[in-house]
Specification:
Layout lengths: L6 E5 L4 H12 L3 E6 L2 H10 L7 E5 L5 H15 L4 E4 L16 H28 L2 E5 L12 H20 L6 E6 L7 H4 L22 H13 L4 E3 L2 H12 L1 H11 L3
Length: 265
């Protein structure tokens, strides 16, 4: 699949993987509809994408609101007349033990961003994706494959995302719309610094050593685009992520211990 002259809607485009992905797709002459809550940061991504032939617009969007997601898709169609790819990338983290949570509302907040945001955007974009026989992309996580301590809300949201898009893939089989679920591991972004802690507020710093074991954002984006070009059904980025689901069937206790040990590394 070539992205030249294709219209791509990308949520979570203001930072991290989303910003780098937007720039890489702009370099391939895609027409982009960039969405995020932080309008100032979103405008910075827009500026970084304007030196290429494709057209780019930015739409400030809170994906937790169904009406905002509907408006995003409406503006995409108004600007470009079609949607060829929807990339559900918007996400927020959570880092605290369940028994230490003091603000239980963080579970709803994480689920609304990571899961319901993808539901809303996909729902409103789907008629246009069917018309273009397009591509529906979910940026998930290896946390969508197994339990991970201190990340209960995040893991639950990614399991929900995985289930949603696995089911959509089956439902859409005869429509020409392909569904790809991307599952990165640890990537060198600030998502863990921005993750919600026990009090419901962003941590401000990561609890793990970010100098060890992280994939670069550029490599992560390269693999996302590689999977999208091939319209793969799923792409798991790390060897551990590929092995763990199978290992859970055979040695589930060992998988629990490996997962627990990886959090501090």
């Amino acid at each position: 699949m070539s992205f030249a002259n294709k219209t791509i809607v990308l949520t979570g485009a203001s930072a991290g993987i989303g910003r780098r992905l937007a720039i890489s797709l702009a370099q391939q002459d895609a027409n982009l509809v960039l969405a995020a809550r932080n309008q100032q940061a979103l405008e910075q991504t827009l500026t970084a994408c304007t030196n290429y032939p494709g057209k780019v617009i930015a739409v400030a969007t809170d994906v937790t609101q169904a009406e905002a997601c509907q408006q995003l898709i409406t503006q995409a169609i108004a600007a470009f007349g079609q949607i060829d790819v929807l990339i559900n990338n918007a996400g927020i983290g959570m880092l605290t033990r369940f028994d230490e949570v003091r603000d239980i509302s963080i579970f709803e907040q994480v689920m609304r961003v990571n899961y319901l945001g993808a539901v809303y955007c996909s729902h409103y974009a789907l008629p246009y994706l069917k018309a273009s026989r397009g591509l529906l992309v979910a940026i998930s996580s290896i946390c969508g494959k197994t339990g991970v301590p201190t990340r209960t809300g995040y893991v639950a949201s990614k399991h929900a995302m995985q289930g949603l898009f696995d089911t959509l893939r089956i439902e859409l089989h005869s429509t020409g719309v392909d569904v790809v679920v991307i599952s990165p591991g640890f990537v060198a972004t600030d998502i863990r610094q921005r993750a919600l802690g026990a009090d419901g507020k962003p941590l401000g710093k990561s609890p793990r050593d970010e100098t060890q074991g992280n994939m670069s954002v550029d490599e992560c984006v390269r693999q996302i685009i590689w999977a999208m070009e091939r319209r793969k059904r799923e792409h798991i980025m790390t060897l551990k992520g590929k092995v763990l689901p199978w290992a859970k069937l055979i040695v589930p206790g060992l998988v629990d211990r490996i997962t627990a040990a990886s959090i501090g590394n």
